[in-house]
Specification:
It contains 11 helices and no strands. It has 318 residues and is mainly α. 73% of the residues lie in helices and 0% in strands. The longest helix has 39 residues.
Length: 318
């Protein structure tokens, strides 16, 4: 398979994984809103998260979403087998594009002009990134670099978590969204390593090597960080921060931890900068799209200031 065929396969599998992740998020968010309602503040402690998980596993909607998510992971793993982390993960920014489409179809309403512009910005950014040939498709992993990158990323995640506890309410969600995006990027790295183990050595080699266990840790940690991000404040900023951080961090990790050439030509660097700006603007717009507004109705009510009602003085009647 030549490079062009590889790019077509990576793009198709990456977009298919993004669609499955979007469908899974739609189903799981619906189930979580049904279970939690407006009491999302209970997710701040471990007991609340455990209670939520116990109720979600009995929800058919959540289980369907979980199985769909497994399908997305398998499809993403297939894409990572063909291409690199730096080539696959930027395609995950298309998740919000698919969420907007699914949510609009569910509501039987046409997206607004602003929503269309945000979607076009994401598409234009992805097309420009792929056309610029900026994402390396191959590269052997350097495990010592993977461990060093993991240590640095884990330290940054812990710092973001501690900062979010002392930050203002509106800032906690985006900070935890960035932490979740970093964790998802690490998960993609270890998913690629685990797929390579499984492909070359089979299940026995996979079980006897450490990347598979690191994958389990990062996957569970990512799920918990997402829940904390959703419970820390309004959801659109958290989702936008998560969706922007994931491909950016994955691109950097894919170049640092794998033996892949970093882009150096001025034209390619300019294309990366422009595509990154387009994707960031589009993701923020899609996170706040009118078609997905109903997904965020579970925002923390406690963080919203209640409107004070002032009583008008009664006129004295003499």
């Amino acid at each position: 398979m030549d490079r062009d065929d590889n790019m077509i396969a990576v793009t198709g599998l990456g977009l298919a994984a993004a669609f499955l992740f979007a469908l899974s998020a739609l189903l799981q968010q619906r189930a979580a809103r049904t279970v939690v309602g407006s009491d999302t503040a209970s997710l701040h402690d471990a007991a609340g998260v455990i209670r939520l998980l116990r109720r979600l596993v009995r929800s058919r909607t959540w289980l369907t979403g979980w199985l769909t998510n497994i399908g997305g992971v398998v499809t993403q793993a297939s894409a990572l087998k063909v291409g690199s982390v730096a080539a696959v993960q930027p395609l995950m920014a298309a998740q919000l594009l698919f969420v907007l489409t699914l949510a609009s179809g569910e509501q039987r309403r046409w997206p607004s002009v602003r929503d269309w512009l945000a979607a076009l910005a994401v598409c234009a950014g992805l097309v420009l990134l792929l056309a610029a040939d900026a994402s390396p498709l191959d590269g052997a992993p350097h495990r010592h670099r993977v461990l060093l990158a993991t240590a640095c990323t884990a330290g940054l995640i812990v710092t973001l978590r501690q900062t979010s506890r002392r930050a203002f309410g509106w800032l906690s969600g985006p900070l935890m969204g960035v932490a979740a995006g970093l964790c998802h990027a690490l998960t993609a790295v270890y998913l690629k390593l685990t797929v390579e183990d499984l492909y070359h050595g089979g299940p026995v080699a996979t079980l006897s090597d450490w990347p598979g266990y690191a994958l389990a840790v990062t996957a569970v940690s990512g799920m918990l960080l997402v829940q904390i991000a959703f419970a820390s404040g309004p959801l659109p900023p958290a989702i936008a921060a998560m969706s922007v951080t994931n491909p950016v961090a994955s691109f950097a990790l894919g170049i640092v931890a794998f033996d892949a050439p970093a882009p150096h030509r001025p034209a390619v660097l300019a294309a990366i900068a422009v595509s990154g700006a387009l994707i960031a603007v589009g993701v923020v717009g899609l996170a706040n799209a009118s078609g997905t507004a109903h997904l965020y109705s579970g925002d923390i009510a406690a963080d919203r200031p209640r409107a004070r009602t002032t009583r008008r003085p009664r006129a004295d009647v003499s």
